[in-house]
TrEMBL record:
This is cysteine dioxygenase. There is a cross-link at residues 230-312 (3'-(S-cysteinyl)-tyrosine (Cys-Tyr)). Pfam families: CDO_I. It comes from the Eukaryota. It comes from Triparma laevis f. longispina. Keywords: Dioxygenase, Iron, Metal-binding, Oxidoreductase, Thioether bond. GO terms for molecular function: cysteine dioxygenase activity; ferrous iron binding.
Length: 371
């Protein structure tokens, strides 16, 4: 062991809880802190240095300790032993949890230090490593920019059937939203401060990525998603998603839609609620919808502003809006992409309602407040 060496035990990666509210599954509750996006594993780094005149004895003991760690199976997912030179060793051990690390500190590590007593340098007290640190494994979390890069290269196609829904959902859930990334997209319309707003973060031929801001008590209309996929993740606060079965559409409406796909008006069957999901940063954070799954309404039942990130792919050019009296009409999505404000000099983003991006306040909102 004269050169730097690393060896690992067979990796045993704990399964991660799904965070997306797929209709067929019930995701486990899990708070979204940065580390909760990872596996929950804890890495422990432990370094020892031999006294100059005890190097041989130190090496003898260290070989035994390394052998002991390599053969540990319970509660350990990975072991690396770095041996820069005779007289120095660094153990890097990955535990399945903080509790497993605590058991190691009270058991095997104490035993190691007993064996190394009198052989190692110390910083004052005896039987202590020259360096020790432990912490939760940092996850491969996205920034908003890296998430957008992923979406731009991955989400393509003419309709929702082209998408790998679970893969995209997992990547979206890897975004750890920081206010410094998304605050500039938060807008409340001063003329309609109780209505939700849609603020374009990124748009291309394959998708629109939109930050939606939900003032307390507001709700969207009940709507479908045409041929698009719709991924949603909560950025801050809590919203409820009320999922409905796609209702039967009246024959006259279907005929009207064939003649004029952009302006059809008609009747639909009774709306049936199939699920109500609470989406928040401390539990289930995301959902996904397309017309094969059903239609939905998003509500802010809380007293605080909520923000959600939506990915519509391809961009939603039109949608059907339903009401509980059995009416349905086609609505065209409106984008302030032509002639809108660039957000340049003199633009106050807190009051500007002309910024480029979707800002179609009236039609997308349901006029009444959440009961
Ligand atoms: Fe939607």
């Amino acid at each position: 062991m004269n050169n730097s060496t690393t060896t690992s035990s067979p990796a045993r990666t704990p399964s991660k809880n799904a965070m997306v509210n797929f209709p067929s599954s019930r995701p486990a509750k899990k708070a979204r802190h940065l580390c909760s996006l990872g596996t929950g594993e804890v890495i422990h780094v432990l370094a020892y240095t031999a006294l100059k005149d005890r190097v041989d004895d130190f090496e003898f003991v260290v070989q035994g300790l390394a052998r002991c760690l390599y053969t540990m199976e319970s509660a350990v997912t990975d072991v690396r032993v770095c041996h820069p030179c005779c007289g120095e060793v660094v153990f890097i051990v990955t535990f399945v949890s903080k509790a497993a690390l605590s058991r190691f500190l009270l058991g095997p590590q104490r035993d190691f230090e007993t064996q190394l007593e009198g052989l190692i340098t110390t910083s004052g007290a005896t039987k202590k490593p020259s360096f020790q640190a432990s912490g939760t494994m940092m996850p491969a979390a996205h920034t908003l920019d890296s998430l957008l890069d992923f979406l731009k290269t991955t989400v393509k196609g003419d309709d929702h059937t082209a998408h790998d829904v679970r893969t995209v959902s997992k990547e979206i859930e890897r975004w750890f939203p920081r206010p410094s990334e998304y605050e500039k997209y938060i807008t409340i319309d001063p003329a309609n401060p109780n209505k939700y707003t849609r603020n374009l973060i990124h748009g291309d031929e394959n998708m629109d990525v939109i930050l939606m801001c939900w003032p307390a008590g507001c709700q969207s209309s009940i709507h479908d998603h045409d041929s698009s996929s719709c991924w949603v993740t909560v950025v801050e606060g809590t919203v409820h998603e009320v999922q409905f079965q796609l209702p039967r559409l009246d024959k006259k409406f279907l005929e009207a839609e064939q003649k004029d796909p952009a302006n059809a008006v008609g009747q639909c069957g009774r709306l049936k609620i199939v699920n109500i999901a609470s989406l928040n940063t401390g539990g289930v954070t995301g959902t996904y919808a397309n017309n094969d799954i059903g239609i939905h309404r998003v509500e802010n039942r809380s007293e605080k502003l909520a923000c959600t990130l939506h990915v519509y792919a391809p961009p939603l050019k039109k949608m059907k809006i339903f009401d509980e009296d059995g009416n349905v009409h086609v609505h065209l999505a409106t984008k302030n992409s032509e002639g809108g404000c660039d957000g340049g000099d003199g633009c106050d983003p807190n009051v500007c309602v002309l910024r480029k991006g979707i800002f179609d306040v009236d039609a997308w909102n349901q006029p009444n407040r959440v009961k």
